[in-house]
Amino acid sequence: MSRICELTGKGRQVGHNVSHANNKTKRTFLPNLQNVTLISDSLGKGVKLRVSTHGLRSVEHVGGLDNWLLKSKDESLSLRARRLKREVAKKQQAVAA
């Protein structure tokens, strides 16, 4: 399973371990991913996603999963999140009409 946040697209970064003698060796920095169930207000159900803690805080700050999905760009979302975004948008249009 790839280590990429499904909502923000945050993935692994590459850097160096630096010793006291200033020797540099390659290493990776992995995002802090959590398996969470986020509640969609418009769909009325929970959705299991693999989200970074930064992404989770961002979702809470914006006001929930639905608001986050509708304001975010499709490039940063995973395939599952894009499908969920389409469902939420369709449901909200149906309610508005």
Oligomer: single chain
Number of helices: 3
Q: What radius of gyration results from the CA coordinates?
A: 17 Å
Fraction of helical residues = 25-40%
> What is the strand arrangement across the widest sheet?
1-2
| Mean of pLDDT | 95
Structural class: alpha+beta
Task: List SSEs in N-to-C order.
Answer: EEEEHHH
Describe this structure in words.
- There is one protein chain.
- The strands form 2 sheets. This protein has a two-stranded antiparallel sheet. It has a two-stranded antiparallel sheet with strand order 3-4.
- The protein is built from 3 helices and 4 strands, in the order ββββααα.
- A hairpin with a 4-residue loop joins strand 3 (33-40) and strand 4 (45-52).
- The chain has helices spanning 53-62, 65-71, 79-96, and strands at residues 13-18, 24-29, 33-40, 45-52.
- The mean pLDDT is 95.
- The chain is elongated, with a radius of gyration of 17 Å.
- 36% of the residues lie in helices and 29% in strands.
- It has 97 residues and is an alpha+beta fold.
Could you list some keywords that capture this structure?
single chain; alpha+beta; elongated
SSE diagram, text form:
Elements: E1 13-18, E2 24-29, E3 33-40, E4 45-52, H1 53-62, H2 65-71, H3 79-96
Brief sketch in words of this structure:
The protein has three helices and four strands, in the order ββββααα.
